[in-house]
Amino acid sequence: MRQCIVLFGLSMACLSAQAEPPDFDRPGLGAGTDTVPRGAAALEFGLPAYLRESSAEGVRSTTWSGDVLLRTGLAPGLELQLSGTLWNRQRLRAPDGAQSRLRGAGDSSVGLKWAGPGSNDRTAWAVLASAVVARGDAAFSDGRQYALAVSVEQSLSDQWQLALFAQQQRGAGQRTTTWAPSISLQATPTVSTYLEAGFFDVSAGPDQSIAGAGLSWRVRPSLQLDVSFDVGLDDESPDLQFATGLSVYLD
Q: Cβ neighbours of residue 75 under 8 Å, at least 6 residues apart?
């Protein structure tokens, strides 16, 4: 699956860019409401992502990872998504100072995003259904997972926008409900920034909550760079998440 994503992405890179691409799903916790037109594609890369966590037993972990999302249009308002984490590098440190290192690939998923009817320039919504189709290495896999999510966006003005991402995920003997509200500002024609929060209700584990911010820069209409971070709001949540990304639209 991961090889297919890379090969397909490389082949699409031979296509020329369109001047007015849809919004990318990066950065942020949720997915946007835009879909890619039929025959076009968007490639969104994490370059890379950093995660720092501490367990109740005192084990501290730091993880670097690289992910990719391929979006391609199937029909008006409908797109196919293929995603995967191509590599992970993790360091674990026990309370006694002992260290270990792990490396490997994460899970690969397939999804369908549908832009809901009635969407307009002021209010838009979309539904995203996804499933893990290829499990990664044991240390970096969450097992078989199935998720259904809804994104809603409301423009307050030409510059300000509110959004809410809600997702229900099931698999590996547990259920996780995610709520991620955000507010974004179009600071300039090419630079956008946002604030977000994420709340995770986990049936078989402690709940988590995080908050953060991000910034994206449209270097060209078909090319975007982004940077973002989130911090944990309680002891059960990750201490710090930091990510940089590159997104390209191809038509």
A: 38
**Residues linked to residue 82 through DSSP beta bridges, in sequence order:** 70, 110
pLDDT tens, residue by residue, 169-186: 999 889 999 999 999 999
What is the three-class DSSP state of 95? coil
Q: What's this model's pTM, rounded to 2 decimal places?
A: 0.89
- Identify whether 27 is preceded by a cis peptide bond (ω within 30 of 0): yes
Look up residue 20 and give its two tokens: 């007015």
CB atoms within 10 A of CB 151: 24
Beta strand 60-75 pairing with 41-54: antiparallel
Coil, helix or strand for 184? strand
CA distances to 195, 210, 222, 228, 245 from 43, rounded to whole Å, are: 24, 27, 10, 18, 11
* Contact criterion met (CB below 8 Å) for 178 and 165: yes
First to last CA, the chain: 23
